[in-house]
Amino acid sequence: MDELAAARRTMGTATLPAGDAYTIELRRFYDAPVDDVWNAITDPERLGRWLKPVTGDLRLGGSFELDGGEHGEILQCDPPRLLRVSWLFGPEADEWPGTSEVEVRLSPGPADGTEFELVHAAAVGEPMFPTYGPGAGGVGWDLHLLTLALFLADGEALDHEEFENLPAGREFVRRSAVAWGEAHLAAGGDRDQVAAAVEATTAFYAPAVNER
């Protein structure tokens, strides 16, 4: 829960090749040097231990695919400060290029640590947002950044499926969904729609035990 509280969550706007987009933004501090964090997000072996196994032509202009089906192109790479990729999920998404991008920015922080910022931009009108709001992607990123924190601290990986079946994991997901609801409200979201989105996101990531 401390790791969940360590992140600041906001929503914003952006412009993608496909048009207007909304953003979910996470900012937090990692007690690890910039070069170590950069290596953890770009080295295939280390990336696979906290995010998902990755394959592809992992260089600027190349393409990647994660074990979960997420895939895209490496659009910008400025070691050790900036990585930007297109981010698509499922074969149907290839029919709408330019609709989703993820950008990670690193900068030196206090005590040889790292200020970490992740911005995920998705085209306005993408189908998940009306039901789940920013929590559709935000809760998943919260889980991955928790895993990254543990990995940077001691090299251990977190099994998300196992974690989400534990009481602590279900509470983490619930609080993450609520936190993204608060970010949505702060960005001008309708209160009733936000409440419904938080409920739907919580049910998606942490369904009732008898529904599993």
How would you describe this protein?
The chain is α+β, with helices and mostly antiparallel strands. It has a single domain (3-205), classed as Alpha-D-Glucose-1,6-Bisphosphate, Chain A, domain 4, CATH 3.30.530.20. The protein has helices at residues 2-5, 34-42, 44-50, 129-132, 135-154, 160-164, 167-186, 191-205, and strands at residues 8-16, 19-30, 54-56, 63-66, 70-78, 82-86, 88-89, 100-108, 114-123. Strands 1, 2, 3, 4, 5, 6, 7, 8 and 9 form a nine-stranded antiparallel beta sheet that branches. A hairpin with a 3-residue loop joins β5 (70-78) and β6. 33% of the residues are buried. The model has no long low-confidence stretch (mean pLDDT 93).
What's a quick, concise take on this entry?
This protein has 212 residues and is an alpha+beta fold. It contains eight helices and nine strands. A hairpin with a 6-residue loop joins strand 3 (54-56) and strand 4.
Assigned CATH architecture: 2-Layer Sandwich
The low-pLDDT segments are none
What's the number of extended β-strand segments?
Answer: 9
SSE topology string: HEEHHEEEEEEEHHHHH
The assigned structural class equals alpha+beta
Distance between the termini: 24 Å
CATH superfamily: START domain
Q: Over the alpha carbons, how many angstroms does the gyration radius reach?
A: 17 Å
Shape: globular
CATH class: Alpha Beta
**Tally of domains:** 1
Rounded mean pLDDT score: 93
* Residue share in helix: 25-40%
Family: Belongs to the AHA1 family.
Pfam families: AHSA1
InterPro entries: ASHA1/2-like_C, START-like_dom_sf
Domain Activator of Hsp90 ATPase homologue 1/2-like C-terminal: 31-127
